[in-house]
Amino acid sequence: MEEKVISTLSGVGIYGIISILIFVTFFVVALLWVMGLKQNYIEHMGDLPLDEAEQNPEKSTPSKSI
């Protein structure tokens, strides 16, 4: 049913092209952003969960209450 409705509309083919262009543009921008990140920033962000555990050791170990 939906196929018949969509096929009777004029200009529907352009939506597929627009959606692919939006996806490719987003992917390329995200790739360029990641490639432009400084190594120090990447290491800092990677160490954040470990830094919190070192600063608050009582929060990193689950406590059992019976």
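(the above was protein one; protein two follows)
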Amino acid sequence: MARVAGVDIPNNKKVEIGLTYIFGVGRPTARKIISDTGISSLKRVGELTEQEIADIRHYLDTNVKVEGDLRKEIGLSIKRLIEINCYRGVRHRNNLPCRGQKTRSNARTRRGLAGKRGIKKK
């Protein structure tokens, strides 16, 4: 397994798919990394040479914010919204959707389990 940005990438995956295992790298970014480093898109991660893996690491270090740095930036952005008491910050603080979704009948994943409601004991 190749280790890039603190993440083990499976050997049997194609390089484009394998790079998406890194937090902050999606398919478009993975394609850009492959094209800029000159790696064949048909290769699998297990077939990469040490030089190609080093090229990917260098590209990620210089051009893309990934893993811990990205998580820290996202967390600080959310914390800033909460501190300034804007609408989105209040929604984050109350564990409700921030992007305008309805919550009367949906948003179960954000609000948590419904629990027992409307059941009377005899």
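Reviewer note on protein two: Residues 67-83 form the longest helix (17 residues).
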